[in-house]
Amino acid sequence: MGLEQKAGDLGVVTARLEDVVNWGRTSAMWPMLFGLACCAIEMIATQSSNYDASRFGMELMRPSPRQSDLMIVAGRVTRKMAPVVRRLYDQMPEPKWVIAMGDCASCSGVFNNYALVQGVDEIVPVDVYIAGCPPRPEALLNGFMTLHEKVKKEKLATWS
Amino acid sequence: MSQIQEVEASINELKHLFSPAAMTGETMVLNLGPQHPSTHGVLRLMLELDGEEVVTCVPDIGFLHTGIEKNMEYKSYLKALVMTDRMDYLNNMGNNLTYCLAVEKLCDISVPERATTLRIICAELQRIASHLIWLGTSGIDLNASSMLMYCVRERERILDLFELISGQRMMTSYIRPGGVWRDVQKEFISGVEDFLAYFPDKVADYERLLTNNPIFIGRTMDIAVIEPEKALEYGMSGSSLRGSGVNYDVRRAMPYCGYETYDFEVPVETGGDVYARYQVRIAEFYESMKIIRQAVDRLKKQNGPVTSEDRKFSPPPRSELHTSMESLIHHFKLWTEGFSAPDAEVYAATESPRGELGCYLVGDGGPKPRRVHFRTPSFLNLQALPYLSEGYLVADLIAAIGSIDIVLGDIDR
Predict the structure, then answer these.
(1) DSSP-based three-state secondary structure for B60
(2) Mutate to test the interface with B, among A34, A39, A50 (most CBs of B within 10 A)
(3) Nearest CA distance, B58 vs chain A (angstrom)
(4) Size of interface A-B (CB pairs under 8 A)
(5) Is the CB of A113 less than 8 angstroms away from the CB of B66?
(6) CA B391 to CA B319: how far, in whole Å?
(7) Residues 6+ apart with CB under 8 A from B117
(8) d(Cα B55, Cα B51) in Å, to the nearest integer?
């Protein structure tokens, strides 16, 4: 974390700005409530009682892209849906991250055909890919933690 | 980057969908979805509103069209099975079952008794799991947010059982042409019994939370009413149809897997509103448990194979490969080319949690199907949505979407 000094009972903590902001970003990252297909059901399971994503400060899913930091592309993205996904991404305020959840979002999985976008990275930049069809809730949680690690390493110069 | 562009539809192209008042600005045209928490997936609705009242409701589907039916034409009969899992993703076992019944009908494969019993247990567990997600999500739509937490807790137990027998929580591909993948462990049977002992109390809890809850009744009673004749005209089926008082259940009307030998009721309500459809599904929890209980009792008495003994269609056990030349040949043929089906067409239907799920399968004499078509219940139930919602408020439209229990993967495929 980089806490360097704790000055007695004054209650002052010093740290690097980068660390504090990145810590804040990881601890309250709100995902967008946006399910596409099968993976959305596992995303619901991750959010619910047994797995409980609120342990990561991510229980608050916002239906509006303007209030969310993280887009979890949960499912197959069809060519009809692709412009919608891109528009949702454009509507999200910076800083924003994208998780491609599952095989379909990562590379269209078992469907190599006319209807699907062959991986959502064709239309939006992806930070973390999660394998599985659908990934288990544990895999999604692992994806969250991987993204958190990534965000914690972000530098002041690259902040958006 | 692939070439994906948004096609703008001009007002003139869409004018015929709405009343003339929409063009003068007297009524408002509002877009709902495809990214909306209450449309249960990627359904888009174009609404014409007079204040809060829905004048016209035009569903726009296809946002999840995956080309599953087309893809299946390029795969052998066994490999095409994995596509069916991903169609209606709350009813994976049921999709497998429907497809397998069609393949078995086409190729005239007989299924051992123990496999049939296992199939029934799986299909009914899946029905409970699907209804749990329906109850949870439509609870959230009506502001009963705690329902989802309770329902998913119970659903996880069913998914654990599926994982035990198939290795996957959702996309199981456990039911195969000729039987099931492999026999179940004894932990599965005891697990199912534990679940049956545990679950009735939980359904009673749900009923205590909702059935007599004045807010829930206010949001659902006499909302989105559909008469039995209308429901039949729209081609509705399943719980949504039975909520209108039509006693039609594929398990009774066209029995498969020996459902006629099980003792269960088909719950029917006559209200035709959201509340009646809720009552039907709650009653189906109990009926499914009744069927599973009988099936488990039978399963304990049945010993024997769980896949067809016909080696032209179902692969031989691994142990035989080292001793039998024929087994080796069969194994090789099945996993490379696949089995061939006659040049014929069949229709097989099952009762999915949403209604009559049919599979129309055409063989061409080779190892790949010429055409696979699924008659999916959500697609036909959704047709009734404009009728269900017009004249009601926008909030009631949300209740109506929840009550017909659509799955977009089932609609668009």
Answers:
(1) strand
(2) A50
(3) 17
(4) 111
(5) yes
(6) 65
(7) B295, B298, B299, B302
(8) 9
- B60 touching A, CB under 8 A? no
Sign (positive/negative) of CA torsion B122, B128, B134, B136?
Answer: negative
Rg (CA), chain A: 17
pLDDT given for residue B1 in this prediction? 47
Evaluate if residue A1 carries a pLDDT over 50.
no
Number of other residues whose CB lies within 10 A of the CB of residue A138 = 11
Domains of chain B: 11-60 (no CATH), 68-412 (1.10.645.10)
Of A84, A113, A118, the CB nearest to B67: A113
Both structure tokens of B194: 């534990």
- CA-based nearest distance A78→chain B, Å: 6
Joined together, the tokens standing for residue B192 give: 């199912």
Tell me if A42 and B65 make a contact (CB, 8 A cut-off): no
ipTM of the complex: 0.85
Residue A114: closest CA among chain B residues belongs to which residue? B67
Name the percent of chain B in helix, strand, coil, to the closest 5. Answer: 50, 10, 35
Which residues neighbour B30 within 8 Å (Cβ) at sequence distance 6 or greater? B46, B47, B48, B49
pLDDT of the residue at A8: 57
Residue A10 pLDDT exceeds 80: no
CATH code of domain A14-152: 3.40.50.12280
B146-166 and B186-210 helices, crossing angle to 10°: 170
**Residue B169 touches chain A, beta carbons under 8 Å:** yes
Burial of B201 (0-12, 13-18, 19+ CB in 10 A): exposed
DSSP class per residue in B94-137: HHHHHHHHHHHHHHT----HHHHHHHHHHHHHHHHHHHHHHHHH
Inspect the interface and report whether the beta carbons of A48 and B152 lie closer than 8 Å.
Answer: yes
Contact A115 B149 (CB under 8 A): no
Interface touch B4/A83, C-beta < 8 Å: yes
Q: How many angstroms separate the CA atoms of B210 and B293, rounded?
A: 26
Query: Rounded to a whole number, what is the distance in Å from the CA of A18 to chain B's nearest CA?
Result: 33
Confidence band, pLDDT 50/70/90 cuts, at residue A62: confident
Subunit contact B67:A114, Cβ cutoff 8 A: yes
SS3 content of chain A, % helix, strand, coil (to 5): 45, 15, 40
Q: Do A122 and B4 touch (CB under 8 A)?
A: yes
Average pLDDT, 10 consecutive residues per value, chain B (413 residues): 62 78 83 79 87 89 89 90 89 92 91 91 93 90 86 91 90 90 89 92 90 88 89 90 90 89 90 91 92 92 87 85 89 88 92 91 90 91 90 89 88 87
